[in-house]
Structures are given as structure tokens and as C-alpha cells.
Amino acid sequence: MLFLDELGQFAPSVLDALREPLEEGVIRVARAAVRAVLPARFLLVAATNPCPCGGGAPGSCECDEVARSRYVRRLSGPLLDRFDLRVAIQRPTVDDLLDPGGGEPSELVAARVAQARRLAIDRAGRLNADLHGDLLDEAAPLSVDARDVLRSEIERDRLTGRGYHRIRRVARTIADLRPGPDGSPPAVLDVEHVSIALSLRTRLRSAAPGLVA
Description:
The chain has 213 residues and is mainly alpha-helical. The chain is built from 10 helices and 6 strands.
């Protein structure tokens, strides 16, 4: 796993160099007459503030619109498109900081994730993140209504072809994490699964103030 904190502070050329390994899982190096292909499959996790000042003092921002726009533009569309999940995180309240609590124990979450991974491997011989082409159609078929939702997103230019396949893989995982009464995940992805996957793909330029991971 590679974690990049303050993603917006990296040079755009450095960030865009990650696009090939994220997409293909390899790095191609060419030097004079020597060419090499190196394995580079990894999980990229990143976090960034919405602007250079990080939000300024509590409840305020010291940046003008030009500074905020310039900051966000450092993160190219093709790079952001390669993130399966883009989640806006709001500033914690005073009560959150002084009296934290709630949430599930990590052991329960880890067990649920492990079960979802086993389901994916038993179904297709690989994790959902590695589903491509015909395997994606076999393992993550869409209901008519779910397909219509995704068609609408694509037609409105809110989802690219790459994003479409990523949404389907995320929706498949969401369905695996929400099994039915018999303990089996639904075979066909419905509107609910697709809608949740879309909600976890925040448009960075329209995100509310807060951290984006």
C-alpha cells in the first residue's frame, strides 16, 4: 500500500506518473537501448485538504477562489478517475473530538471484509478489484434499473468509461458486504448497490469543505 498525505502538495508530474502503474500494475522503464517492465501493483490511499490553508481557523478559510481552484487543478481528472473511492470527510465537531465513541469494533469490520473477499474468490477466482471484461459481466451483472442509472450518469458526462467499470466493481463489493437473509449476496446488482457506489465517488471540485480521501 502507498499512502500519500497532502496529495495536493505533490507536483502534478509526480502524481501523473502514478497513472500507468495504477491502471496496468507495471512500470515501463526505457533507457537508451535498454527497456524493462517492472511489477508495480499496489493500493493507493491518499488524503488532501480542500485548499492550501487547510480550512484556516475553525469554520473559516483564508484562500480565495483562485487559490482553491489552482490547488484542486493540481489533481488531474485522469488521476482522480483511477481512484475507486473518493470520500469527502467533514470537519469533526467539538463533541466528536472531546467525547469520541460509537462505531463498530475493528474485529467485526475485518471479519466482514474477509468474508467478502472469500465470496469474490469463490465466485470468480479473484478479488472484485481484478474483474475485467467478460468476468465483470459474469460476476457483476446489472438489473435493468441499475443499468439505466449508470447510462444516465454517462450521458450527463458525470462518469467516464473507466469510472463505469470501477463503479460496477465497487457495487459488486457492496453487494457482497450486504448478504440476504440466507447469507448469500445477490447475484444481480440493483439500483441500491450502484447508487451507494456512486455516492462513494465524490466529485472533488464540488465537494463540500473538508478533507477528501
